[in-house]
Amino acid sequence: GENVEQHPSTLSVQEGDSAVIKCTYSDSASNYFPWYKQELGKRPQLIIDIRSNVGEKKDQRIAVTLNKTAKHFSLHITETQPEDSAVYFCAANPGNTPLVFGKGTRLSVIA
Amino acid sequence: DAGVIQSPRHEVTEMGQEVTLRCKPISGHDYLFWYRQTMMRGLELLIYFNNNVPIDDSGMPEDRFSAKMPNASFSTLKIQPSEPRDSAVYFCASKTGFRQETQYFGPGTRLLVL
H or E stretch including A100? Predict the structure, then answer.
């Protein structure tokens, strides 16, 4: 089955700096890769996703890149702000089956 | 669209009591998922349904846990009897049957078993 590894588990950045979170997956059949943000005490919420026919996707300060050959994908947050502090989860979907989630990255943006 | 609805939002109970968590998926979604989240174990998939039928319950920790989906708009997760180690946040999520469609999470039920 699919296995998703996520790094780092914790990340601290200064406000205004960039943050990068990386994930690898094992199943070459995976074709959908969402990223969720979970603020303290809240539900995981989709912030961006990418499908396997696209190499990069950007939405304002957030971008995701996908390397199918290497089986890894990354979340990039530029010009970080304190409100970006949260736990971020990557996930992969090898088909019409449940998403397989990474263990999460706790991002702290220091003002 | 009201999103995925869960109730109760918070539940405090004593060990040995029965706990029932409820979920209403987004209308038109034919997949429903139950997750448990703890600091130690992260986000765990417990069970999921497709068209009201349980597909995979391998994540259900013990026979004390059971889940049902009597119709397309309602599901329950029951713990009987509850134990302190069941304390966690339980999320319900739903999605459509198409590939490459994301899951939408409910607000969660925070369960504390004393």
Answer: strand A100-101
